[in-house]
Write a structure and sequence with these properties.
The complex is a heterodimer of chains A (369) and B (558). Chain A has helices at residues 58-66, 112-122, 127-140, 156-168, 186-203, 214-220, 238-243, 248-253, and strands at 20-29, 32-42, 47-51, 73-78, 81-85, 88-89, 98-100, 175-178, 207-211, 223-228, 231-236, 257-264, 269-271, 276-278, 287-293, 297-300, 307-316, 321-327, 331-337, 346-351, 357-360. By secondary structure, chain A is an alpha+beta fold. Among the domains of chain A are: 20-97 and 172-243, Rossmann fold (3-Layer(aba) Sandwich), CATH 3.40.50.300; 259-360, OB fold (Dihydrolipoamide Acetyltransferase, E2P), CATH 2.40.50.140. In chain A, the strands form four sheets. Chain A has a six-stranded mixed beta sheet with strand order 7-8-9-3-10-11, sandwiched between helices. Chain A has a five-stranded antiparallel beta sheet with strand order 2-1-4-5-6, with helices on one face. In chain A, α2 crosses α3 (127-140) and α2 (112-122) runs parallel beside α4 (156-168). Chain A is elongated and about 80 Å long. The two termini of chain A are 38 Å apart. With 558 residues, chain B is mainly α. Chain B folds into two domains: 1-29 and 347-558, MetI-like fold, CATH 1.10.3720.10; 71-231 and 295-337, MetI-like (MetI-like fold, Orthogonal Bundle), CATH 1.10.3720.10. Chain B has 24 helices and two strands. In chain B, strands 1-2 form a two-stranded parallel sheet. The chains are: A alpha+beta (369), B mainly alpha (558). Chain A binds chain B through residues 29, 63, 66-70, 89, 91-93, 95-99, 101-103, 105-109, 118-119, 122-123, 150, 152, 166, 170, 176, and chain B through 1-4, 6, 454, 456-457, 459-468, 470, 474-475, 478-479, 557-558.
Chain lengths: 369, 558
């Protein structure tokens, strides 16, 4: 990415500017670095998810885009316009964004229509036009009948729909979602993911979506940026992220499968102290961890020369039996099996070698047991 | 988190700092200067600390300090003795008429101690109402240190009662029941779980009682002066009011009093900051109250006795005196008449103008204090400019300001000859004093309200396109409105009947409710004074009750 600031007036014909572009963005709070040298670009009409564990800086990044925080270094451009640079920032009200908050942040002293109409009011839209737009936005989230209610009379899911209506009512060029579904229970969350995806597609929204839930990120986003300790660890389409995680920690955070230590042996690569896995050319020299994605394994009758595993315990989970299997060398893996295996039974494991991912030893490795 | 520290925020913080410096800090500064440099009034810094030495060597300061401590600690002990059993019964058992008792115990807290004291004098003095009814008087007990302590405790105990019954109820529901599941009997559950968990709250409310007692003027002035029991507050009053005026001496006593009040305030804040255990859960379970059984009657008798002594007798004595045609006529049907009330409410009497003056002053003080307090709380909580710590400190300073000290500060600051223009000797000096005295109320209420407003509500407004000021006006102000209103009401009620500061800095030719009552008792018609007292009690007790109930209804939006 080009890190030098763009000259504001270029004679060259430029394409539509990115809806959002950050370059070299850094922030320290109380001396602790929260964000380090973030570069990101989001094209109009696209959805980017910021995915990471709590404390990874994803919400802070969102607040920088909103203008609720000011960066220490780096720049933020919205639709080609510089809105933040080191120590300077356009205030949030001047950025023309929509935002959905984790705690809904509905104003309790205004009714639903008052909440949703507020951004239009701030843009000095005349009342009749405003009422029409509010009604349309509420209709889109299925709450047309609730305009006169107080937020406190609504359920959590309804409140979040009001918050979404408020975020989209002014048709902002960019909508920010700050873990909008994390306060809802699982069933409702799944419904809401579908609804948000529908809205995003229908309205052609450009959105930055912060979440710690990877299924949410995968369902909604064209691209997912995985954040770790204030940096972007990998940015890729959801499918590519799952197929090819860039590091052990990303694979672990996304829970893609078992991460096991490997060593070089006579025939090639072996599980440490355990069975043969792959010929030498499967992985580069400095490899020490392998990712065994669940989908790379299939269970068969044990045969000679095959990777075998002993069932140590199983839990029935409704959609199958979640079995913990012990491999030679003291390694454990977990697999979902269609039938309940007998404890102590020995199973054969067939590995689809193309799906294995090999990782080099790295300073940040924390090999799982 | 860092946000835009733009010009408006800096400007707002600076404005709050300047206002609080003039209104709050300057009077305290002048007291300190006067105490250190006794000749500063003459423009000289000569003989620093000499006045302090004088006050100390004359034995006035140690004696008054010790007496103040005796009065404060005594009031704390008696308040606890009254309130703890009542609160435990109220919170843990099914007491008949529980809500009614709560309302009844609000009344003694709403009756200003000087009025309660005067009514007890009418009741207990030789040939007082008690002697007329029973042949006995209690003048010996009344005009004694225990008498002072008991009367103050009868005013202060509701603070402990309400704080404690709330935490007992919450703890009884959440934790004590758990201990009973694990085998503790009811008494053991109370002693091992409920009481220890309620201790921080109990201690905090007792410290508040201590602070109220040591700052009280009316009771020790009426009852203590006659027996030579001088406390810091009455000592300061005499040093200012009696010839020869001793401003350095008054300032020295004031510094000691402020130090004691500050210590009490800090201790209380620390206890409360550690947090009561009763608030641990998001939804405190209501205790399953147990039936009182055979103890119902004794419990009701106890509640009734406390209500009679704290509320009934003072109110009845006030009413009897107000209705008496002549005091010497005593308690007799033919001696009853409404002439005192007509005199209070009739046009062009001193009484009526005092009433109107006080109500007007209370209204202005409530508005200004509310605005200033809300402004200070906003600056402290919602801006990022550096001066907000100074604003925070100044907004908390009046917590340690008894009325008599505020009056002294007003005199020392605004009576300087070099002011080209001064509020001194006008009604506005009273407004300034009331604002300083009562600033903590709106600060406390709006701070609590602002803290409850999630920062994301601000952020949502800003992202929606509202500027900082629009956000404050459209989001914050409506949300803290009901709380601010309650605080202003409290300011109004207290300011309208404030006694000691009003007595000391009253401009010539004016009277307030409290000074009118006080002077009528001293040298005028006691009946007229008590009629005024009765009207005041009605106004300042019923009005807040009505508004509080109304406010509770509007709070439903939260």
């Amino acid at each position: 990415m080009d890190l030098t600031p763009q000259p504001p007036l270029s004679t060259a014909v430029v394409d539509t500017p990115a809806a959002l572009e950050m370059a070299g963005l850094s922030l320290r709070l109380g001396g602790t670095p929260i964000l380090r040298d973030i570069d990101l670009k989001l094209a109009p009409g696209r959805v980017l998810a910021l995915l990471g564990p709590s404390g990874s800086g994803k919400t802070t990044l969102l607040r920088l885009v909103a203008g609720l925080l000011v960066p220490d270094a780096g720049t933020i451009h919205l639709a080609g316009k510089l809105v933040a640079a080191a120590g300077h920032a356009l205030p949030p009200e001047a950025r023309g964004l929509g935002m959905v908050f984790q705690d809904y942040a509905l104003w309790p002293h205004m009714n639903v229509a008052g909440n949703v109409g507020f951004p239009l009011e701030m843009r000095r839209m005349p009342a009749p036009e405003r009422a029409k737009r509010v009604a349309r936005a509420l209709d889109r989230v299925g709450l047309a009948a609730f305009a006169e209610r107080r937020p406190s009379e609504l359920s959590g899911g309804q409140q979040q729909r009001v918050a979404i209506a408020r975020a989209i009512v002014a048709e902002p060029a960019l909508v920010l979602f700050d873990e909008p579904l994390s306060n809802l229970d699982r069933e409702l969350r799944e419904t809401m993911v579908g609804e948000i995806a529908g809205l995003v597609e229908e309205l052609g929204l450009t959105a930055l979506y912060v979440t710690h839930d990877h299924s949410e990120a995968f369902s909604l986003a064209h691209e997912v940026a995985v954040m770790e300790a204030g940096q972007i660890a990998q940015i890729a389409a959801p499918e590519d992220l799952v197929a090819d995680p860039a590091s052990v920690s990303i694979a672990r955070f996304l829970r893609l499968g078992a991460l096991l230590p490997v060593q070089r042996g006579a025939q090639g690569w072996y599980l440490r102290g355990g069975a043969f896995l792959a010929p030498p050319e499967a992985a580069p020299e400095k490899t020490d961890t392998v990712l065994l994605p669940s989908r790379a394994l299939s269970v068969t009758e044990p045969r000679a020369g095959m990777l075998t595993a002993t069932v140590t315990r199983t839990l029935f989970r409704g959609d199958g039996h979640w079995a913990t299997l012990a491999l030679d060398g003291g390694h454990d893996i977990q697999l979902l099996l269609p039938h309940r295996p007998a404890p102590g039974a020995v199973l054969g494991l067939q590995i689809s070698h193309g799906s294995l991912r090999w990782f080099p030893s790295s300073p940040s490795k924390r090999t799982s047991p | 988190m860092r946000r835009q520290g733009g010009a408006p925020q800096g400007l707002l913080t600076a404005l709050a700092a300047v206002l609080l410096t003039v209104i709050v800090a300057a009077p305290f500064l002048f007291i300190a200067l006067q105490a250190i440099f006794p000749k500063i009034g003459a423009g000289s810094l000569a003989a620093p600390f000499s006045a302090m030495a004088d006050v100390l060597s004359a034995g006035r300061l140690p004696r008054a300090t010790l007496n103040t401590l005796i009065m404060g600690v005594g009031t704390v002990i008696v308040s606890a003795l009254i309130a703890v059993p009542l609160a435990a019964i109220r919170a843990l058992y099914r007491l008949p008429g529980a809500a009614l008792w709560d309302v009844i115990f609000l009344v003694p807290f709403m009756i200003p101690p000087y009025i309660a004291t005067l009514s007890w004098v009418m009741t207990g003095q030789p040939r007082g109402y008690l002697e007329q009814l029973t042949g006995q008087n209690i003048a010996g007990l009344l005009f004694s240190v225990p008498g002072i302590v008991i009367i103050l405790a009868l005013h202060c105990f509701p603070v402990v009662y309400f704080a404690l019954s709330r935490s007992f109820a919450a703890i009884g529901g959440r934790f004590a029941d758990v201990s009973r599941v694990f085998g503790a009997g009811p008494l053991r559950a109370f002693l091992r779980v409920t009481l220890p968990l309620a201790l921080p709250g109990l201690a905090a409310s007792l410290i508040l009682v201590f602070a109220m007692a040591i700052e009280e003027y009316g009771t020790p002035a009426v009852l203590g002066t006659r027996i030579g029991f001088r406390v810091l507050v009455t000592g300061i009053d005499e040093a200012i009011g009696d010839w020869p005026v001793d401003l350095p001496g008054a300032s020295t006593l004031a510094l000691v009093l402020v130090a004691m009040a500050t210590a009490a305030y800090l201790a209380q804040r620390r206890l409360l900051a550690r947090g009561g255990f009763e608030t641990t859960g998001s939804r405190p379970l209501q205790a399953d109250r147990r039936p009182l059984g055979r103890a119902t009657l004794p419990a009701l008798l106890l509640f009734g006795a406390v209500a009679l002594v704290s509320t009934g007798i003072p109110l009845l004595a006030v009413l009897a005196t107000a209705l008496a045609k002549t005091i010497s006529g005593g308690l007799a049907p033919e001696n009853l008449g409404l002439q005192n009330f007509t005199a209070v409410l009739a046009t062009s009497t001193t009484a009526r103008s005092a009433l109107l003056t006080s109500l007007g002053l209370g209204l202005v003080a409530a508005l200004l204090t509310g605005l200033l307090g809300a402004f200070a709380a906003f600056v402290v909580l919602r801006t990022r400019a550096r001066g907000r710590f100074y604003v925070d400190l100044l907004a908390a300073l009046p917590n340690a300001a008894p009325g008599v000290v505020v009056a002294l500060g007003m005199i020392l600051l605004w009576n300087q000859p070099w002011w080209p223009i001064t509020p001194y000797n006008t009604l506005s000096i009273l407004v300034l004093a009331y604002v300083l005295l009562l600033l903590p109320q709106p600060v406390r209420y709006t701070t609590a309200a602002l803290q409850q407003i999630a920062p994301s509500l601000d952020a949502a407004a800003r992202v929606s396109g509202a500027s900082e000021l629009t956000m404050a006006r459209r989001i914050l102000l409506p949300l803290i409105g009901p709380h601010l209103l309650v605080a202003m009401l409290l300011v109004f009620v207290v300011a309208a009947r404030e006694l000691v500061a009003s007595l000391l800095i009253l401009p010539v030719g004016h009277q307030t409710i409290a000074t009118f009552i006080w002077r009528q008792f001293d040298q005028g018609s006691v009946g007229l004074g008590m009629a005024m007292a009765f009207v005041t009690i009605c106004l300042t007790t019923l009005l807040p009750l009505v508004v509080l109930i109304a406010a509770r209804r509007t709070e439903d939006i939260g």
